[in-house]
Structure formats: structure tokens, C-alpha cells
């Protein structure tokens, strides 16, 4: 891992575990330079990542003020909230398997500077009450899970990982954005390009901090509030 990413992840962990609280200041650039034995620019790259994600605000002459401690990390149970919410609202939901491809590189926009991974790509369409609402792209780390059977992909990936493979999933880091619909969104979700898409890009970690998977989940925004 590049040094600035190590610093970023260390600081992010300290923020999300509330070692640093909202309103606190991060350690100064000089203290981080001395702690990690890196250049000031390396430290600034890590700090800029935190600022871009809304965790901190850099104030001239004062330092980096922590704005949020709970923005992007969610316990694993939140990944299951889709299924829970569907059940709570008595909705009928299915997973339609679109495709499975082996030995696929993870797109750069999902890696956020992390090392490249070779994955099995599983594309699924989630249909709720006969309306397609979500298009999921799951990139499963082949070094951890060499192959996911098609029958499993049509059900719950994470139940398979935990119950069958006995992997210990710890947390997911999520990045959320509103973006214009792309060609595949229009095809598989039955929308036109005037409908925006809520995009959730996430990385799921095991308890030993290895990355199990990267996911890009594309929700049609006109139906998102009803799920």
C-alpha cells in the first residue's frame, strides 16, 4: 500500500473509532511527517482524501478540524438492510443474474488508490414488486473466493461467504454519489437518461482487513425512497 494511503486509513480508523471526536483537530502535518517518516506532501495527500470525503475541514492557521466520525463506515449488518427493509415492507424481491465473468480487474474508481485486484465480476439486477430498481456490480477477490457458483449469485453472496465459506466479514466503507444514468442503467432498469442514479461504491473488509470485494450498486433514484 502506498504510504499516503496507509496514513489515510490509519487516520480514518482513528476518526471512525472515535479516538478523534467531532470538533477535535488532527495531529499537525509536522507530527505526521515525524511519525511516518515521510514527506510533507505525502501527509497532505492523505489529509486531502479525508477532506474530499467530508471528514475534516482544513482551517488556515488552525489545522484540520474533524467534521464527522460516522460518514462512510457501516457495520456489516447494514449491508443486509436491503433484505431487511424488503421484508419489513412485505415486498417481493428477486435477484436476476445478468452475467458472471472471471479474472476481471477492479475499475480504478472503486480502488481509490488501493492495489489492483483480480476478481470474479457478478452483475445482478434487483427487482422489487416486478420493478427493476438496482443494478449491482460485485467484484469478488479471487485470491479469497476463487469462484462463486451461479446458483449462489442469484441468492445472497454474503450469506454464502459467512455461512458456507466461514469468512469473518467486519465492515464496509461506502462512497455515495448522484450520477447521470448510463447505457446499462437504461437497459436493465428500464429508465431513460433523464432519471438520475444513486451510486453506492463500497469495499468490504474481512476481520483481518483483507478486501473481500468491491461493489458498485446503482439505484434508480426515482424509486430509492420507496425501498
TrEMBL record:
SUPFAM superfamilies referenced in this protein's UniProt entry, alphabetically: Chorismate lyase-like, Winged helix' DNA-binding domain
Domain of life: Bacteria
Entry keyword DNA-binding: yes
Keywords from the UniProt entry: DNA-binding, Transcription, Transcription regulation
Domain HTH gntR-type: 1-69
Keyword match RNA-binding: no
Entries under InterPro entries matching the protein: Bact_HTH_transcr_reg, Chorismate_lyase_/UTRA_dom_sf, TreR, Tscrpt_reg_HTH_GntR, UTRA, WH-like_DNA-bd_sf, WH_DNA-bd_sf
NCBIfam families named in the record: trehalos_R_Bsub
Protein name: Trehalose operon repressor
Gene label: treR
Amino acid at each position: 500500500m502506498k504510504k499516503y494511503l496507509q496514513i489515510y486509513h490509519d487516520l480514518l480508523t482513528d476518526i471512525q473509532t472515535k479516538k478523534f471526536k467531532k470538533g477535535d483537530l488532527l495531529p499537525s502535518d509536522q507530527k505526521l511527517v515525524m511519525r511516518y517518516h515521510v514527506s510533507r506532501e505525502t501527509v497532505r495527500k492523505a489529509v486531502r482524501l479525508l477532506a474530499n470525503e467530508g471528514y475534516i475541514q482544513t482551517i488556515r492557521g488552525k489545522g484540520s478540524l474533524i467534521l464527522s466520525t460516522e460518514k462512510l463506515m457501516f457495520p456489516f449488518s447494514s449491508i443486509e438492510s436491503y433484505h431487511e427493509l424488503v421484508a419489513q415492507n412485505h415486498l417481493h424481491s428477486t435477484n436476476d443474474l445478468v452475467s458472471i465473468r472471471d479474472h476481471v480487474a477492479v475499475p480504478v474508481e472503486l480502488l481509490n488508490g488501493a492495489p489492483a485486484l483480480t476478481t470474479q465480476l457478478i452483475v445482478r439486477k434487483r427487482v422489487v414488486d416486478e420493478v427493476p430498481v438496482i443494478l449491482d456490480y460485485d467484484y469478488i477477490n479471487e485470491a479469497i473466493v476463487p469462484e462463486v457458483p451461479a446458483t449462489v449469485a442469484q441468492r445472497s453472496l454474503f450469506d454464502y461467504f459467512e455461512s458456507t465459506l466461514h469468512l469473518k466479514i467486519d465492515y464496509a466503507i461506502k462512497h455515495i454519489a448522484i450520477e447521470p444514468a448510463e447505457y446499462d442503467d437504461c437497459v436493465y432498469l428500464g429508465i431513460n437518461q433523464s432519471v438520475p442514479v444513486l451510486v453506492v461504491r463500497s469495499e468490504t473488509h474481512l476481520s483481518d482487513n483483507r478486501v473481500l470485494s468491491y461493489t458498485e450498486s446503482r439505484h434508480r433514484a426515482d424509486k430509492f425512497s420507496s425501498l
